[in-house]
Amino acid sequence: MTAMLIKGGTVVGPGGAFAADVLVDGEKIAALTLPGTAPDVARTIDATGRYVIPGGVDAHTHMELPFGGTSASDTFATGTAAAAWGGTTTIIDFAVQRAGESVQDGLAAWHAKAEGQCHVDYAFHQIIGGVDEASLKAMDSLVADEGITSFKLFMAYPGVFYSDDGQILRAMQQARENGAVIMMHAENGIAIDVLVAQALARGETTPVHHGLTRPAALEAEATGRAVHLAEVARDVPLYIVHLSASGALEKVAEARDAGRNVFAETCPQYLYLTLEDQLGAPGFEGAKWVCSTPLRSRHEPHARDLWKGLRTNDLAVVSTDHCPFCFKDQKELGRGDFSKIPNGIGGVEHRVDLLYQGVVDGRISLERWVETIAATPARMFGLYPRKGVIAPGSDADIVVYDPAGRTRISAGTHHMNLDHSAWEGFEIAGRVDTVVSRGSVLVRDGAFHGRKGHGRYLPRGLSRYLI
Ligand SMILES: [Zn+2]
Predict the structure, then answer these.
(1) Claim to verify: residue 260 and residue 199 sit in the same structural domain
(2) Closest Cα partner for 37 from 51, 22, 47, 48?
(3) Residues 232-243: what's their mean pLDDT?
(4) Of residues 157, 95, 175, 104, the one with CA closest to residue 134
(5) Strands 398-402, 51-54: parallel, antiparallel or unpaired by DSSP?
(6) How many angstroms is it from 60 CA to the middle of ligand 1?
(7) What CATH number should be reported for the domain holding residue 23?
(8) Rounded distance between C-alpha atoms, residue 113 and residue 107, angstroms
């Protein structure tokens, strides 16, 4: 077996940071040793002055997602290469079942897109776009046989992915029996569609109206409704995706304070970007930041509250909701009608850096950084301890992070297949130095050594994060 030693660094996990050398044997971490005591090995990576953290786990990506008459611009090949560049070594993407299509066919289509294409390991959640007898039954077999233990439902997008409350309750009851987690896009899509039609009738067509027609109150309402429906389904584990607003966070916090299995993620865009500064950019520029849930107003305390939620664990995970659409020919489909702008921001490459900036700014601790970007998503979605931790027996997915480095984000230098960056000009006081996936060095000294097909499908177990 080929052995590798990552030496001289500070290993960081949720439980603390300590000096240790990390011995890798083949695809696995073999041991953590006192600095300087490991045997001589074939390859050494000097991590002096740097952090040694588990490879990032991004639990929310949409590679090649068909949406609004086009498809997300990153393939599994380009998107997972970009993920690796940014220190993310596992993605969990969303296989899609649309109404009228079988769940198994939807899943097979996703396997076909990803197989042999990925640079890092990948797993799937399953979107249930049509809750009926067949799809409810399919949920059981996905949990038992396919390693898919989480199902996403939508309270938004009527006519596309939307489930009504009865369908949601039935899917929750099914998950309560088979042990899966229900993930929820919590926005009241029926009410939003009324506001969208009214805005367009008034001639309000620019990108900022995407945000103005999706008010925070309708995210809070849907989040609260999902929490109560989950309660009726005998406390099925509920995970709110891309939580963006204070009111929705309050609903999650209240349920958690009551001891419920209710969890939530947020995304970097809600921590740093706003409705006024980005979505409200002049002309059609704001289209770059059209995503759902939308960016929130800087005049309200959403971002402050989300950082607080990250500290208190009312927000357990930071994912990207990576769903890139190019400005040219894709975002431009919505010129003159904001409702036709494909929804999504590309960010799979930048999550580890953007959250590290939260450490630099004193908003979260070093340990909390690693917990929210790697350890908790692995535990939440049944990948732990294979992923999300630097420990003997775990996959050797390791990032050496340089706190003395700098990262400047730009479309000119990023690796996503995307003609602009939602983060153009952002500077981070830190830098991904080396990225290792199952013992293979993917990124080192600013060069990419990964290969398409290295990434493997990860069948997942049940959540290890429940009360
Ligand atoms: Zn999403």
Answers:
(1) yes
(2) 22
(3) 98
(4) 104
(5) antiparallel
(6) 6
(7) 2.30.40.10
(8) 10
Q: What is the pLDDT of residues 372-389, one digit of tens each?
A: 999 999 999 999 999 999
CA of 321 to the centre of ligand 1 (A): 5
Give me the CATH number covering residue 242.
3.20.20.140
Please tell me the distance between residue 24's alpha carbon and the centre of ligand 1 in angstroms.
34
**In angstroms, what is the span from residue 93 Cα to ligand 1's centroid?**
9
Structure tokens at 421: 């960056």
Residue 313: CB atoms within 10 A of its CB come to: 16
| Cα angle for residues 407, 411, 415 (degrees, 5° grid) | 75
Q: Tell whether 430 and 335 lie within a shared domain.
A: no
Q: How many domains does one find in the chain?
A: 2
- Cα(62) to ligand 1 centroid in Å equals 6
pLDDT in the model for residue 68: 82
Distance between CA 238 and CA 328 in Å, rounded? 37
Distance CA 288, CA 122 (A): 27
Measure 390 CA to ligand 1 centroid, in angstroms. 28
* Ordered DSSP codes for 89-107: EEEEEEEEE-TTS-HHHHH
Confidence at residue 99, expressed as pLDDT on a 0 to 100 scale: 85
Gap between the Cα atoms of 94 and 107, Å rounded:
9
Q: Whose CA is closest to 249, among 270, 264, 271, 236?
A: 264
Q: Are residues 218 and 321 part of one domain?
A: yes
> What is the rounded CA–CA span in Å between residue 96 and residue 104?
10
- Which pLDDT tens digit goes with each residue over 65-78? 998 889 999 999 99
Distance 349 CA to ligand 1 centre (A): 16
Per-residue pLDDT, 69: 86
3-class SS of residue 350: coil
Letter for the amino acid at 72? Answer: A
Residue 457 lies in a domain: no
pLDDT of residue 315: 98
In a domain, 43, yes or no: yes
Same domain, yes or no: 71 and 49:
no
* pTM higher than the cut 0.85: yes
The answer on 370 and 300 residing in a single domain is yes
Q: Say whether pLDDT at 1 is over 80.
A: no
Task: Give the distance (Å) from ligand 1 centre to CA of residue 201.
Answer: 28
Residue 137: give the domain boundaries.
55-380
Domain annotation covers residue 465? no
Whether residue 75 contacts residue 63, with contact meaning beta carbons closer than 8 Å, is answered with: yes
Asked if residue 70 lies in contact with residue 29, where contact means CB atoms within 8 angstroms, the answer is no
Boundary-marking domain end, from 331, 353, 380: 380
* Same-domain pairing of 85 and 134: yes
- Given a cut of 70, whether residue 147 has pLDDT beyond it is yes
Q: Tell whether the model's pLDDT for residue 292 goes beyond 90.
A: yes
Considering the domain boundaries, does residue 455 fall inside one?
Answer: no
